[in-house]
Amino acid sequence: GKISIKTDKPVYVAGEIVSGTIKLRAEMPIEGRAVVIKVTGYEKAEWEEERSRQVEVGRDDNGNARYETEYYTEEYEGENVFFKDYVTLYTIQGTLLGEHNFPFQYKLPDHLPGSFKEKREWTAHRHYVNHNDEDYWQKNKKRTKGDNRELEAKIVYKVKATLDVGGFFAKDLKASQGLIVHEKLDNLITPAQASVTRQVCLCCCIPRGTCTINAGFDKNSYAPGEVAQIVARIQNDSKSDVKNMNVHLVRYITLRSKHGHTKTLVDRVAAAKYDGVPAQNVKDMHL
Hints:
By secondary structure, this protein is mostly beta strands. The protein is built from one helix and 14 strands. 2% of the residues lie in helices and 68% in strands.
């Protein structure tokens, strides 16, 4: 026999109802007990970090130890199944033969995190100390100049269909499909604003007055594909011209290993540059 599962669409928002069909083809009679689905969500992270240490490489003419900096790589990983649910869709009595369709619906919880995937490689350009003990390097994950560092992090959802087949020697029929889940927007969507005032100095020490920036987003939560609207007011009360204003959209990703070690990635997702404000002027900008 053969079983397959297909959802009506590939992308869902947390809190939505996932619907689809489980198809079963039994070329010979199958003693089935139940059709079950399992919905899981898990997160996984694997990454490498470069470390350095001082190692003794010999002695000088006076018998004093000589040290050099040795660079090596430590590997970290973490995995967590944060969501798992089983639902028995249909109870079967008797045998199954031929083709059968089992429609299903499943409501996702409201507060699931969104699907995510990040994979990177970068090259290290370091000088590594030579060492004759090959076992030592294998144990300490030796890297040679130009070797790659790797990082992978993901949040993955999957729905699995199972035909529970009775009998000790019988094998259950299983099929699975990945799901893309978007995080549900906060119900309390409000504008987000911030303000900062700084002293403008000439040659880093001669005060020229202050400059104030009031900036805000039209809301504090966005869905993928939406455009973030920024409104800013620049009040330049100083005696110096503000030549330009730079806007950066920054993303923070925090990885956590199974032993509690964390690594935070800071990425500039987008950047734009705008004209500045002359001295003793105010400028309103829609970005």
